[in-house]
Automatic annotation (TrEMBL):
Transmembrane regions: 36-55, 62-81, 96-116, 136-154, 174-194, 215-236
Gene name as annotated: RSB1-4
Cellular compartments per GO CC: fungal-type vacuole; plasma membrane
Keywords noted in UniProt: Membrane, Transmembrane, Transmembrane helix
Keyword Nucleotide-binding listed: no
Entry membrane topology: Multi-pass membrane protein
Protein name: Sphingoid long-chain base transporter RSB1
Species the sequence originates in: Colletotrichum sidae
Subcellular localization(s) per the UniProt record: Membrane
Pfam family, one: RTA1
Length: 260
């Protein structure tokens, strides 16, 4: 939605021409300049993670997991580069697009990686204890991720290029639908994951579980929880649109989006 002022200055949208030299920071959509140190730290973190996952994936030939993690890391990096652009010009529409689309959809790929991991873990431990065949985790949850990805990306793109508040709200609602669908899929996955762990813990195969495997399963569960927490935060953040205090709170963004 292009926000045009009486003197011809445009604060937001494809035709935005405001800069800090012409317009006060309060007129920008975020109303703050994103932290450069925080953005740089997360760019470096995801760059290192990308490199490590690429090396490990090539060595172990875990192409599905590697592809999902690398895709998510690339999107996160692009999103935080967008925040650096917004720091230089809080009215940059390109920077806003990079942030809102890339950071929003990146966790979808991390979810897909978790689905792949659990399927492989069940195959390794005891597939007979799972209520679903391991391959069904691919065929059920990854398509759900794709639907969520399409809705979130389409909603972010539509809301960013719209010229009326109604169209912006429509785009935000589409993104929210994608996030809600992702939460639903993650909750279903979490229940199946917890159910399998309970059934496995009661089985005779439990004696074969070593400390490394226990740590791995704990981190897998923790990763799922953090992605779920992040999705709930994004729903709360966007439920009032781009002009709410939730959307303009950088501390919350760093704590519940970046750090999580």
């Amino acid at each position: 939605m292009a926000s045009e002022l009486p003197d011809g200055l445009i604060t937001f949208g494809p035709d935005a021409n405001c800069t800090l030299a012409l317009c006060p920071l309060e007129w920008s959509i975020l109303r703050y300049r994103p932290s450069v140190p925080a953005s740089a730290v997360f760019i470096a973190f995801f760059a290192v993670a990308l490199t490590l996952h690429a090396i490990q994936g090539i060595r172990m030939r875990t192409w599905g997991f590697m592809g999902s993690m690398i895709s998510g890391c690339i999107l996160e990096i692009v999103g935080y580069v967008g925040r650096l652009i917004i720091y230089n010009n809080p009215f940059s529409f390109e920077g806003f697009l990079m942030q809102i689309i890339c950071i929003t959809v990146a966790p979808v790929f991390f979810s897909a990686a978790i689905y792949v991991l659990l399927s492989q873990t069940i195959n390794h431990l005891d597939p007979t204890l799972s209520r679903l065949k391991p391959k069904l985790f691919y065929w059920l949850f990854i398509p759900a991720d794709i639907v969520s990805l399409i809705l979130q990306a389409a909603g972010g793109g539509l809301s960013s290029v719209s010229t009326t508040k109604e169209a912006v709200d429509r785009g935000v609602n589409i993104s929210l639908a994608g996030l809600v669908f992702q939460v639903f899929a993650l909750l279903a996955f979490s229940l199946l994951f917890a159910d399998y762990l309970m059934r496995y813990s009661r089985s005779a195969a439990r004696s074969k579980t070593d400390t490394k495997l226990k740590i791995f399963l704990a981190f897998l569960g923790l990763s799922t929880f953090f992605i779920l927490l992040r999705c709930v935060y994004r729903i709360v953040e966007l439920h009032e649109g781009y002009f709410s205090h939730w959307f303009r709170d950088e501390k919350l963004f760093i704590a519940l989006e970046s750090a999580v």
